[in-house]
Design a protein that fits this description.
The complex is a heterodimer of chains A (327) and B (518).
Chain A: H1 2-30, H2 38-59, H3 65-93, H4 98-124, H5 133-139, H6 150-156, H7 161-179, H8 181-191, H9 193-198, H10 203-229, H11 239-253, H12 258-277, H13 283-290, H14 292-307
Helix pairs in contact in A: 1-7, 1-10, 1-11, 1-12, 2-3, 2-4, 2-10, 2-11, 3-4, 3-5, 3-10, 5-10, 7-8, 7-12, 8-10, 11-12, 11-14, 12-13
Chain B: E1 11-22, E2 25-36, E3 40-44, H1 51-58, E4 66-71, E5 74-76, H2 81-86, E6 89-92, H3 104-109, H4 120-134, H5 149-162, E7 167-171, H6 179-194, E8 198-203, H7 206-212, E9 215-220, E10 223-229, H8 235-243, E11 261-271, E12 277-287, E13 290-295, H9 302-309, E14 320-323, E15 333-334, H10 340-345, E16 348-352, H11 368-373, H12 388-400, H13 417-430, E17 435-439, H14 447-462, E18 466-470, H15 474-480, E19 483-488, E20 491-497, H16 503-517
Parallel strand pairs in B: 3-8, 3-9, 6-7, 7-8, 13-18, 13-19, 16-17, 17-18
Antiparallel strand pairs in B: 1-2, 1-4, 4-5, 9-10, 11-12, 11-14, 14-15, 19-20
Chain lengths: 327, 518
């Protein structure tokens, strides 16, 4: 039982990182913009929040938890939105190829984050020395006395507030897309921009806003990764990037429906940690288990392709630039 | 706001000296057009004459480079589709502007932002009212991907009316409809006109112009030629205006000389990847020196039929396709189960013009000689390509079919649709086939080019080739083909004589099986 609880908790923590990434990307992709730069956006979110609170913790005598949280959130959101803005400018205004731009963005953001991560470590006194204890603790504050609720408390209440925020955002985005008129307009932009344009919808505006807001949400995944998953430390091992790609895979797995991404993300988490709980695995056979989330994504893609159900397909104009006078 | 001398009693919209360029192509050159209240105006012109461009400027898709637009006597600028709606102008585009995964009602309220949350109750009531008023049928909760072409078009019209349009522009609305559906559309159009709405219909079908319109305005190569009341003109006069010179409107139909069985298809069956039957029990014979027309609502198996003969589909057991080159009984062979290359080498050629034109048959990024090479890539012996022959062939096609191209080296995607089609058909004919299959060979082509294609097909026919012609325009099928096979939901609903059959008869056959199963 303890083993299960521990796997469950690990899955949720892992899943929350990619859930943020995926929910943001769903919002972006619904506008027809395919931002493969999610790993890069998450890099920016993580390093920006780390830089912000590093300086705060360094110069404040007694860091106040709520201020720590606010600084981290604001830094992560601004940095990832700027990333989204750059991507939007390149792909919407200049009509660059979205795939190429996304990949290039990842290389840029990865280098950017690791450069500053390394610098921070140096400032903190050496490799692996950076540690924003106060902020990390603030983000990991759990619901008081959850332990008194037995296994239920351990399974569902033993997390920092970002876990619940991720779930809330998933439902909120889904509600926004299906119930609100603006959401309807946004979906039409992603499905058929020419139609949306003829209906008087400002395609460029919709694409810009949804890409930037989507990037902000994805960036929170990076923030959660560095503050909770990594407990306020920085490691230049590129694992943010791996998680970012998993978030992109999760979007496909969830067939562009945010609520599906919730349990999908936890399933991915469970599959990713499974090797840890299966006895008798060697180092090399562990690696095979780490492929599971990707294999599941491929299987889902195959199933979806065979269903031929238009409602489960990607937005029709996903990845295509739109130019009104294109003939 | 400047009041102009153009405030006349019955003019709803006046366009003055409108010019629009795309890069260095002048699409509209100083066009003057007026649209009056309560009339149906037909905007007539060949392909590329600038009809759609002109109307797109009213609907806010494009903006004019120079010239002025007056609505109700007031000079206005239409920057985007929103402005057009505010001026009560609505356009039904040739390629429907609908989102497939949304329902009818959701499509209708798209971009209106009447309320924060989606509230479809009002929409349903409004739609019901509009439908009752003009005689439509629309199910507001049906998803667009489940709709037929005609339903989609109805939805487009309702959408525009819901937005309060008083001036409706329909861009080639009948191109995709059966004769019966066209009649229904015309009834609706007359109802709208009686209600005081102005309607502009863009078309190049002359008989429709004569039937539905009050006035005809003609464009030619981006220039405004003039307008006439429909009652004072006839198809011949209109054609002369459109083309700029006298064109005979009759399609030749020489009698078949010594017809012999060339292709005998028996019990042909094809299923698609999901196991849905696309063709069932199709049997027919094509003769040498004859044009066999194939009619049917789009998607009824025409494409699958031609592709099966060309060897591109797996056939159901029991299907047989006997092919006799030049009608020679001794050389007869069953094509079923043979590879596309083998079939091609036996002289069976397929010129398929898909909806996106470049999807099948030609490669858009390659130039004309390279596209010629696609057909003979397996003939060379050395590892290097022989550029000479394809080049020669390309020059011949450009000369014989009057292809307009900046040069041999131009990628063909830069050419206009008509020219691309000429290249495709020209290449297939140049290979001297025994059996020539063309699908939608004149789709989207203007009258002049269409007649060139008909002439080419007739030349093939006189050479003793068996020609199969899949067409959309029933009038043309009835004038060009010796016999017409009608497909309905993947089955043959009848084979009629092109010389004696009536249009209504064919139209009925096209929908025959549907009624039976309904």
């Amino acid at each position: 039982m303890n083993q299960f609880i521990s796997l469950f908790q690990a899955s949720i923590v892992f899943g929350t990182v990619i859930l943020f990434g995926a929910v943001g990307e769903i919002l972006t992709e619904k506008s027809g913009n395919l931002n493969l730069g999610v790993p890069g956006i998450m890099y920016l979110g993580s390093i920006a929040s780390l830089i912000g609170v590093f300086y705060y913790e360094r110069y404040a005598e007694n860091p106040i938890p709520i201020v720590c949280i606010l600084i981290a959130l604001v830094c992560a959101i601004i940095a990832s939105m700027l990333g989204g803005l750059l991507f939007s400018f390149m792909t919407i205004t200049l009509r660059c190829n979205q795939n190429v731009m996304g990949l290039a963005f990842n290389i840029f953001a990865g280098g950017f984050a690791n450069f500053y991560g390394g610098s921070l470590n140096k400032l903190a006194g050496g490799v692996g020395q950076i540690n924003v204890l106060a902020t990390s603790a603030a983000f990991r504050t759990k619901i008081p006395s959850y332990q008194s609720l037995g296994p239920f408390g351990h399974l569902f209440l033993s997390y920092g507030f970002l876990v619940y925020l991720a779930i809330f955002l998933a439902f909120a985005i889904s509600w926004f897309l299906t119930r609100s008129t603006v959401g309807l307009n946004l979906r039409s932009v992603g499905e058929n921009p020419a139609t949306a344009d003829a209906a008087g919808i400002n395609v460029t505006k919709y694409k810009y806003i949804s890409t930037c807001v989507g990037a902000a949400i994805s960036g929170l995944g990076g923030l959660y990764y560095v503050m909770d998953y990594m407990k306020g430390t920085w490691d230049s091992d590129g694992s943010v990037e791996g998680l970012g790609w998993l978030a992109v895979a999760l979007v496909i797995f969830a067939s562009w429906k945010a609520p599906r991404a919730i349990w999908g993300s936890y399933l991915f988490g469970m599959l990713s940690w499974a090797y840890f709980y299966i006895p008798g695995l060697t180092r090399s056979s562990q690696e095979i288990f780490k492929m599971l989330p990707y294999i599941v994504t491929v299987l889902v893609l195959i199933v979806v392709a065979y269903q031929h159900k238009p409602d489960n397909q990607p937005p029709n104009a996903l990845g295509l630039p739109y130019f009104r006078e294109d003939r | 706001m400047r009041k102009e001398p153009y405030l006349e009693q019955n003019v709803a919209i006046r366009m003055v000296d409108i010019t629009k360029r795309f890069a260095d192509v002048v699409a509209n050159n100083k066009i003057n057009l007026e649209i009056r209240f309560g009339e149906i105006l037909a905007l007539l012109g060949e392909n590329g004459s600038g009809k759609t461009t002109l109307m797109n400027m009213l609907s806010g898709i494009y903006m004019q480079d120079s010239g002025a637009i007056y609505v109700n006597g007031e000079r206005i600028t239409i920057k985007d589709p929103h402005d057009a709606y505010n001026l009560h102008i609505g356009m039904i585009h040739q390629h429907f502007k609908l989102v497939e995964v949304l329902t009818a009602a959701e499509n209708i309220i798209l971009g209106l932002n009447e309320s924060r949350l989606i509230n479809l109750k009002n929409v349903r009531e409004q739609v019901k009212k509009i439908c009752e008023r003009y005689g439509f049928v629309v199910d507001p909760d049906k998803k667009v991907y489940d709709m037929s072409v005609s339903e989609k078009q109805t939805l487009e019209i309702v959408k525009v009316l819901y937005r309060g349009a008083d001036i409706l522009i329909l861009d080639e609305p009948t191109a995709v409809l059966t004769p019966q559906e066209t009649d229904k559309l015309f009834v609706v159009m007359r109802n709208m006109k009686a209600d005081g709405k102005s309607i502009v219909i863009i078309t190049h079908k002359l008989h429709e112009v004569m039937e539905i319109s009050d006035r005809v305005a003609v464009l030619r190569k981006g220039e405004y030629i003039g307008d006439v009341p429909t009652s004072e003109t006839d198809p011949q006069k209109l054609t002369n205006m459109m083309v700029g010179r006298s064109v005979t409107l009759n399609i030749d139909r020489p009698d078949p000389i010594d017809p012999k069985e060339s292709l005998v298809v028996k019990n042909l069956g094809v299923k698609d990847i999901n196991g849905v039957s696309k063709l069932e029990n199709v049997s027919f014979t094509a003769y040498t020196g004859e044009i066999l027309g194939i009619a049917g609502i789009s998607g009824c198996g025409q494409k699958e039929l031609l592709e099966s003969i060309a060897g591109l589909h797996k056939l159901e057991p029991g299907s047989s396709i006997m092919f006799y080159p030049r009608g020679n009984k001794e050389e007869g062979e069953d094509l079923a189960g043979q590879s596309p290359i083998d079939i091609k080498h036996k002289g069976v050629h397929l010129a398929f013009v898909p909806e996106d034109r470049l999807g099948m048959g030609l490669v858009g990024n390659m130039n004309i000689p390279d596209n010629m090479m696609l057909k003979c890539y397996d003939q060379g012996k050395s590892p290097f390509t022989n550029q000479k022959k394809p080049r020669q062939q390309a020059i011949e096609i450009i000369r014989d079919l009057e292809v307009v191209t900046p040069g041999l080296r131009t990628p063909i995607r830069r050419l206009s649709g008509g020219n691309v089609q000429k290249i495709l058909v020209g290449r297939e004919i140049a290979s001297d086939p025994y059996l020539l299959m063309t699908a939608y060979a004149v789709r989207g082509l203007d009258i002049n080019t269409s007649y060139t294609i008909y002439r080419l097909l007739n030349e093939q026919k006189e050479k003793g080739t068996a020609v199969i012609y899949v067409g959309e325009d029933l009038d043309v099928l009835l004038e060009l083909c010796d016999r017409i096979l009608v497909l309905c939901s993947g089955r043959v609903s009848g084979i009629v004589d092109g010389r004696t059959a009536k249009k209504e008869e064919v139209g009925l056959l096209m929908t025959h099986f549907k009624e039976e199963t309904a």
